Amino acid sequence: MNQVTDLAQAALSIEAGLPMRVSPLQAGQGLHQHLPALQQLVAEHLEVSGGLLFSGFADVDVASFQQFAGAFGHPLLSYEFGSTPRSRVSAGGVYTSTEFPAHRPIPLHNEQAYTTEWPLRIWFYCAQAAEQGGETPIADSREVFRRIDPAIRQRFAERGLLYVRNYGNGLDLPWQQVFNTEDRQVVEQYCRARRIDFEWLGDDELCTRQLCQGVAQHPRTGDWVWFNQAHLFHLSALDADTQEVLVDAVGLEGLPRNVYFGDGTPIEASLLDEVRGVLDACTIRFPWRDGDILMLDNMLTAHARDPFKGPRKVVVAMAEAYGQEGFQ
């Protein structure tokens, strides 16, 4: 660190941990006034701590959030092959957080860990904190990896995972929304380029199957992380009544989403219950404040969403696409 940056960081309050908390010592100061120091902090600490929380900076809005997220050397990404509903907030790569009903929790996950391409960096901006609840819990994916039963970890690492998705049956997102196009040829090109098997069914239905990683190694730190969404895609993620209704309606093959081991054999629900227990044990919560920005290394740190009451607005940006070559 050079002397100028050292002096700049002296004007900040820095609290170690996950997330590392960074605030201006003088009230009324904006992100842009500290940008070089904040960029240096991210360069030095993001891949160590796993995440930084920028809090107490003045005049933060969607536009300044977009500028801030774009100030770290990589253009912001579009949200492609999504598994949850989001809406574009700006043309520059800012989206709403997952648009699930307020009463439903969203379990811990790493963004797009259900495919072989994902963003290495993800930001969340809290424009309006909920009246009650609505936190964005996080967890150290390295610690999750360490705590998972070694026998389970080995099965996921060696066998990989097969994600199966059905679109167009009215039970999940339509393929047009997932692939951001109305053109079937564009969908087919996207799938072929990423080794996603696809099959058109009926008039407007699509099934995709993709072999993906169960664990992953960070490309720069070398850390091994638990990196998948099996606990979200598996039928056991739903309550018993919903499981029964869905299976009766469309059968196992027609479920909106499901996941198997890479060879197509079923994953035991009890195994995923153990995984969920580890994720729960590793969960870290902090209260949102209006204007907060959370920056995560998407491989090192998982995120979630708690249920909430009252209005809530949190938007998201992602950058630095990365692919897991071993499963492509």
Automatic annotation (TrEMBL):
Superkingdom of the source species: Bacteria
Protein keywords: Antibiotic biosynthesis, Oxidoreductase
Cofactor section: Fe(2+)
Statement: the UniProt record of this protein carries the keyword Cytoplasm: no
Record flagged with keyword Cell cycle: no
SUPFAM superfamilies: Clavaminate synthase-like
Residues in TauD/TfdA-like domain copies: 34-317
One Pfam family, short name: TauD
Coiled coil: none
Record-linked PANTHER family: GAMMA-BUTYROBETAINE HYDROXYLASE-RELATED, TAUD_TFDA-LIKE DOMAIN-CONTAINING PROTEIN
Name listed for the protein in its UniProt record: TauD/TfdA-like domain-containing protein
Lineage, uppermost ranks: Bacteria, Pseudomonadati, Pseudomonadota, Gammaproteobacteria, Pseudomonadales
